[in-house]
Every structure is written in structure tokens, then in C-alpha cells.
Design a protein that fits this description.
This protein is mostly helical. The chain has two domains: about 50 residues; about 50 residues, no CATH class. About 40% of the residues lie in helices and about 10% in strands. Strand 1 and strand 2 form a beta hairpin.
């Protein structure tokens, strides 16, 4: 006959919760990995991540947002006078562009900003 271990309910301080949540922000580290490190359920970490008390400043600033961009025919001269030295986009980034013609252009992953500018110049002219 085997006896089951009695589970002990652990309590975590706010500082411990914040520390555990911060560990999930490290690139390449998943919440499941952090949960195994502390012998806990990953769902508990996800619950804490939703709580504003345990979010870091990094989590708040990394939220994505789409901003409206409009290009009118009066401003197309600005496109031709812009410099062609744009920095490359970081891998994993994305940009969605709606053209005046109603067409949408979505660019995802790492891409060359200069090549994207050339493409847009060709589409607008």
C-alpha cells in the first residue's frame, strides 16, 4: 500500500510573484519552464501575469498597437525626398499598411526598411 503525499499549499509574497513573472520575459524562456523550476502549475503564473501588480514596466511598454497612417496625393513628394537609409526591422516584427487604393500590405518578420520604402514608392507613384 502506497501513501499519497499530502500537498502543502504554498503562499507567495508579492515580491516572489513579481520575480517569477519577470523570469518569463527572458527571450527563449517559457512560463512552463519557470513553473517547473518552482514546482508549480504554469496556469498560476499566467494568472499572475494578468495582474497589474506583478507586471514590470517592460511588460506594459511592449504592448502592440496599430496606428493609423494616411498618405495623401499632396504629400507624395515627401516620399521621394526621404532618405533611403532605413534600419532593418527586428525579426518577429510586423507592419500593416493600408494604401489609398484600399489595398492592404502586411509585412512580417525581419525585412529591409530601404527595400520596403522602395516598394511603397513604386506603389504610390
Amino acid at each position: 500500500m502506497t501513501l499519497a503525499k499530502k500537498r502543502v499549499r504554498r503562499t507567495w509574497s508579492d515580491d516572489e510573484k513579481r520575480s517569477i513573472c519577470l523570469q518569463t520575459l527572458v527571450p527563449g524562456v517559457s512560463a512552463a519552464q519557470v513553473a517547473r523550476r518552482y514546482a508549480m502549475n504554469a496556469n498560476l503564473i499566467f494568472k499572475w501575469l494578468k495582474d497589474p501588480r506583478f507586471q514590470s514596466d517592460e511588460q506594459e511598454t511592449e504592448e502592440s498597437a496599430f496606428l493609423p497612417v494616411e498618405i495623401s496625393t499632396a504629400n507624395t513628394s515627401l516620399l521621394h525626398s526621404a532618405t533611403d537609409n532605413f534600419p532593418p526591422c527586428q525579426p518577429g516584427g510586423s507592419i500593416k499598411i493600408e494604401l489609398a487604393s484600399g489595398h492592404h500590405l502586411t509585412v512580417e518578420g525581419g525585412f529591409d526598411g530601404t527595400e520596403l520604402a522602395r516598394l511603397l514608392k513604386g506603389l504610390v507613384s
